[in-house]
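Design request, C-alpha cells follow.
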C-alpha cells in the first residue's frame, strides 16, 4: 500500500500478479486481494466479460498493468471516485512514468513515438505499431528519455535504461512502441523473442514508477513505487 484515503487506494503491484482474471486460468489476482480487504468495493467499477462469456468483477480498477509489469496503480473505493478518476484517464490528464531497460543504445537522447497500434496477422496475433497491423487501429503516443546507456557486465549486451511516459493507454503500448523503434524491452519474450534475457531479468523489465492525478478531494497527488528487487539487482549488473 502506497496511499489510502476515503476515496482511493494506491498500491505497488508486484510483477507476476494479474490485475483481474482473464477467464482462462485460475490464479491469485489483485482484484481478489481488493475484495478480501475491502468487500464493500465489490460493485465499484465496471465488470468485464471474458471471451468465454464469464462476467469478471473488477472492484475499483480504473486502469491496468500487465501481469509482468510492477509498480503503482490507483483504485477507486466508491462509485463517485471511480467516475472521477476514470474521466482523468480518458482525458489523458494523468501523468505516468515507467522505467524500462531496453536492448541497444538509442541514437537520440529523447523521442516521441506517434504510431497507431493494431493486431498483427501473426499466429497467435500480437499488437504492433509496424507494418502488418490490421483492423481497429488505435492512436497511441509515447515519450521517452534515455537515463543511461551501458552494458550488461555479465553478457556484454548493449543496454539502455529509459524513462517512458505514455500519453495514451493502449494494450502493451510501451512494449509495442519500443519494439517499433528497434529497442524492445529486456526479457520481453512476446516482442523480443530472439533476444536473450539480460541483467538477470526473468520478466519484462518494465516498472510503473510514478503516477500523478487529482484525487476526489480536489488535491493533486503524486505517487511513486520503489524499485523492485530485480531492478535493484539489475543496477548492480549495469555499467
Amino acid at each position: 500500500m502506497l496511499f489510502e484515503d476515503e476515496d482511493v487506494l494506491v498500491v505497488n503491484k508486484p510483477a507476476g500478479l494479474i490485475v483481474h482474471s482473464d477467464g482462462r486460468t485460475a490464479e491469485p489476482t489483485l482484484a481478489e486481494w481488493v475484495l478480501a480487504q475491502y468487500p464493500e468495493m465489490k460493485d465499484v467499477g465496471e465488470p468485464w466479460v471474458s471471451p468465454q462469456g464469464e462476467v469478471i468483477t473488477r472492484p475499483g480498477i480504473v486502469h491496468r498493468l500487465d501481469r509482468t509489469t510492477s509498480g503503482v496503480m490507483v483504485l477507486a473505493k466508491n462509485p463517485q471516485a471511480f467516475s472521477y478518476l476514470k474521466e482523468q484517464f480518458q482525458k489523458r490528464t494523468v501523468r505516468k512514468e515507467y522505467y524500462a531497460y531496453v536492448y541497444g543504445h538509442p541514437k537520440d537522447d529523447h523521442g516521441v513515438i506517434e504510431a497507431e497500434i493494431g493486431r498483427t496477422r501473426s499466429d497467435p496475433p500480437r499488437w504492433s505499431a509496424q507494418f502488418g497491423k490490421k483492423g481497429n487501429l488505435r492512436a497511441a503516443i509515447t515519450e521517452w528519455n534515455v537515463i543511461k546507456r551501458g552494458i550488461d557486465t555479465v553478457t556484454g549486451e548493449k543496454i539502455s535504461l529509459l524513462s517512458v511516459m505514455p500519453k495514451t493507454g493502449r494494450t502493451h503500448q510501451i512494449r509495442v512502441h519500443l519494439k517499433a523503434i528497434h529497442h524492445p524491452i529486456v526479457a520481453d519474450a512476446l516482442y523480443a523473442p530472439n533476444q536473450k534475457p539480460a541483467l538477470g531479468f526473468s520478466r519484462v523489465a518494465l516498472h510503473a514508477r510514478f503516477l500523478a492525478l487529482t484525487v476526489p478531494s480536489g488535491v493533486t497527488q503524486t505517487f511513486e513505487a520503489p524499485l523492485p528487487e530485480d531492478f535493484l539487482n539489475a543496477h548492480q549488473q549495469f555499467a
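Comment from the thread starter after seeing the answer: thanks! The two ends are 32 Å apart (CA to CA).
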